[in-house]
């Protein structure tokens, strides 16, 4: 694998995560087991899978901190032997749109003396999805999932703020 491909694979999830809130059309959905009494859960921790998310260490920490803030605001405590295990997954794909613009100079009937140029405007955006899953440790089953998806236009100057905003949106309708 060449260096550019390796770099792209490492950066894609990062770009997805940090840019979700900076774009329009973010869709957040949640699903949970309606038979579960979420007030019975008191503690949480992160699965080993979170450390495998293709983000750099700084942004992985930002993601974990944002999730911790949301869970702690709902009364949960971080514990070595938790009731809930947090798992995350990021996926995405690049979308391209192209618009052709025809610029003419001169008269159409004087084609040999006029000029015409076609400019193609290509826009790149990323359609991405962030999943946050909560797993009941004792039952070993998924009890809640929050998903944020949409088109993104990456801006890197507000990474931490964007991560916090996306995670906050995901947990907005948490059932506890």
Rg over CA atoms: 22 Å
Largest sheet: 6 strands, mixed
Element pattern in H and E: HEEHEEEEH
Count of individual domains: 1
The helix-and-strand class reads: alpha/beta
Instruction: Please indicate the percent range of residues in DSSP E strands (runs of 2 or more).
Output: 35-45%
Explain the overall architecture.
There is one protein chain. With 176 residues, the protein is of the alpha/beta class. It has one domain: Double Stranded RNA Binding Domain (2-Layer Sandwich), CATH 3.30.160.670. Helices cover 27% and strands 39% of the residues. The chain has 3 helices and 6 strands, in the order H-E-E-H-E-E-E-E-H. A 6-stranded mixed β-sheet has the order 1-6-5-4-2-3, covered by helices on one side. Helix 2 links the parallel strand 2 and strand 3. It is elongated. About 4% of the residues have low confidence.
């Amino acid at each position: 694998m060449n260096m550019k491909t390796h770099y792209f694979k490492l950066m894609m999830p990062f770009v997805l995560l940090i840019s979700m809130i900076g774009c329009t059309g973010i869709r957040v959905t949640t699903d949970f087991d309606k038979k579960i009494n979420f007030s019975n859960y008191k503690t949480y921790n992160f699965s080993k899978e979170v450390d495998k998310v293709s983000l750099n260490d700084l942004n992985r920490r930002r993601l974990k901190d944002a999730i911790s803030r949301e869970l702690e605001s709902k009364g949960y405590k971080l514990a070595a032997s938790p009731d809930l295990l947090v798992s995350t997954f990021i996926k995405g794909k690049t979308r391209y749109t192209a618009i052709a613009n025809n610029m003419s100079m001169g008269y159409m009937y004087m084609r040999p003396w006029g000029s015409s140029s076609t400019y193609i405007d290509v826009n790149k955006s990323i359609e991405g999805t962030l999943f946050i899953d909560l797993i009941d440790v004792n039952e070993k089953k998924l009890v809640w999932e929050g998903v944020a998806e949409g088109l993104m236009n990456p801006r890197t100057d507000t990474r931490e703020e964007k991560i916090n905003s996306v995670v906050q949106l995901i947990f907005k309708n948490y059932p506890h």
